[in-house]
Each structure stands twice: as structure tokens, then as C-alpha cells.
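Moderator note: this is an archived Q&A kept for reference. The question asked for a predicted structure of one protein chain; the sequence and the answer are reproduced below.
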Amino acid sequence: MCKEVVTQGFSAPLKGEILTPPDKSMSHRSLIIGSLTQGKIKISNFLTGADCLATLEILKELGCETEFLDKNTVVLNAQNAYSAPKKELYCGNSGTTMRLMTGLLCAQNFKSTLSGDISLSKRPMKRIIEPLSLMGASIKSNEGKAPLIIEQGKLNGIEYKSPIASAQVKSALLLAGLQTSNGATTVLEPHLSRNHTEKMLKFFGADIQTFTKNGLFGVTARHSSLVPKDLNVVGDISSAAFIMVAAAIIKGSDVILKNVGLNPTRTGLIDVMKHMKANIEVLNCDLVSNEEIGDIRIKYSPDMEGCEIGGEIIPRLIDEIPIIALLATQAKGTTIIKDAGDLKNKESDRIACVERELRKFGAQIEGTDDGFIIEGKNCGNGLFKGDTEIESYHDHRIAMTGYIAGLISKKPCRINGFEWVETSFPDFLNIFENLKK
């Protein structure tokens, strides 16, 4: 059932402290990598969004046992993993689930099928099928897309030079490589993609090394027996991004986000906001379960300036680009986002969809082959006109970007398909209502 949300028009200042929602990438990996320990672990601050619950349900179908101690604490018992599933393994809307589970499953001695919803079934899986096939995996697909039928294959370690920096490709290969004793598996990337998999594997005791080679970023994994350990998931900077941008563009706002994950492969947004002269600071840095964390304070920033965003920083903020595009509409001058062509392969074609929906608000934004050209501060005093209807395209980040745009609009806006926000940020509306009190 399609859920509609109506913004109230120009928002009151956002003020207060909030605990950042759990990290989606780490929540997926805590289950998948945790299952490889073949033991019992407790995962604290686990994200109970629809995407992560899809991963949990698949692992249960494969023989793992799970128990929630409270809303965000789950115990995973993988002592009886892995057994042949009795039905298709449904990934819902989650590309992370499908790609990482393919890496895990192609090393098993049984047949399995991974399927997804209408959006996931359109996303490219060839990027993992080809390198896993080079390792000896047997994967059938629908012309490079889901459903994926995975049959037993004899895997060998390989060295793979990835044409793109992709954490999901890298993770799928490492998960397969950990389960084969026939050679090491090495992945080389042109830029360093998010490295939660490598960090978590090290946390659980895997034989894994990272390095640079001829300007490429590499990681090598060998067959390993992982050690069960309890793990704490840090806050998700990709979810925090919507609050950070909202506070920067809504007059009078002053927000502190607690327990934000500050993994350097994810903090591109912070670098960009500082470069744009946003009023932002990082406080109280620490290390939890081998991941950097800290608090972020962000205040209304009326003097931001446009900039150029491209190159090595793109993998460090690829999920935040829709909300960065909105941020750029409120900065002085021109912002150019380039080298982000993979946005076309997300839950939606985010280049086309972001351009189309922000234009409805009156933004001056032009989509390109690999990004955007955005002219800022051309909507009167910075406020959008509002009084429009926004589509989400089955994409949680488009829906949330539309909501934030509605908070700086003169008139209310309607966002259709807002239920997709449940995949990554179930408490989104509650958090914003609390910050506006």
C-alpha cells in the first residue's frame, strides 16, 4: 500500500541531540560475516530496517537461529549454518543482501535462488557474476539481473582488477575467497570503496591484508576460521546526512548527532560540507568494534558556497549525492558533481530522478551523464515554492530528499511512496518531529 507524507511547508528550526540510527552497511555485514563464525554472537545497535531484516530472514532460512533481546539487539546463532534452503531467498529491495549473499552462497554445496522486488530485479548483477564465475562459481541470471540461481561450484582464489570502486563487488569476492582453500583472493580497485567488510573481517580474526599497488587499492583474503565475538554497530552517516543537510539549510537550526560512524571511506559528505563552508564540527572521536565513531554538531549555514565534487571522493559519498544535490541548491554559485555515473544503477536512476523531482520545487539543476550541474540560491530567498507532488521511485533516498526539500518550501508538499524509507531509516519521521519541537 502506497504511503503518502505531506510536509507542512517552511520548518521551524531543528534543535536538539539525537542518537544516530544504526548503520545499514554494518548491520548487513554483522549478520553475514557473523554467520561465517559458525558460532553465537550478540549484535548491538542493529538496524531493524526492511533491508537488514531481509538479510536476517535469509540466514534463518539457511539454518541460523536469531533472537531479539530488544528492538536493536539481536543474538545470531550460526552453529547450524548452512543448510539447503527450502524456498527462494527473497532479498526485497536490498542490493547489498543480494550481492553479498551471492558471494557467500557460491561456496556452498547446495543450490539456491536469490530473488528481489521489482526495483532490485532491474539492478545490474553482472558486476558480481563475472568475477565470481572466474573463481569457479556457477551462477545463472536473467540477462545479468535477478533472480540469481547459484549452483555448487569449485572455487579458486583469483586476482581481480575491478573497473569500478564497489564495496559490494569487493565484499562478494572476499566472502567467497574466505571459504576456499585453493589460493588467495585479491581485489584491486581504482579508488578505495567503503571498507566495512575488511574491518569487520579483521575484527573476527580473518587472514586479510590491505595494500596499494601501482596506484590501485588492494585487499587479499585467504581461507580463514573466524572467531565469534559480540559486536556493536555504529551510527549510519548516510542516514545522518539528511539531518546534517536539513540543519545546515533551515534557519536557526543547531543539532548534535551522537555516535556517528566516521569510517574515512564514508566521510566524504563531511569533507564536502566543510569545503562549502558549512558550520559543522566533529567531536568526541573513539573506536568501537574496529570502526571510528564520533559526534557531529551542525548549525544553520547561510554562507555556503558551491564547489566541484568528483574523482576519488565519489565512492566516499555515493549514497549521499541526492541530498548533496539539495544542499547545493542552497549554496551560492555553481556546484558540479561528476564521475558519479553509477548513480544510474541504484534503487532508481538517481541522476534522472533527482533532477526531475528537485525541478518540481523550482531548483535549477541539470543532470549529466555522470552527475549534475546545480545553480544555487536562485529560488528567491533560498526557499522553494512547494505546493508540489514528489515521487519516490521505490527509492528511500529520493523520498527522504523530497521531505527535506519540503522543509524549506513556502507551501506544503506531498511525497508519494514514502514507505520505502522503511528500508533504511524507520524512525525518520519521528526524529524530525522531535527536532522541530
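Archived answer notes: The mean pLDDT is 95.
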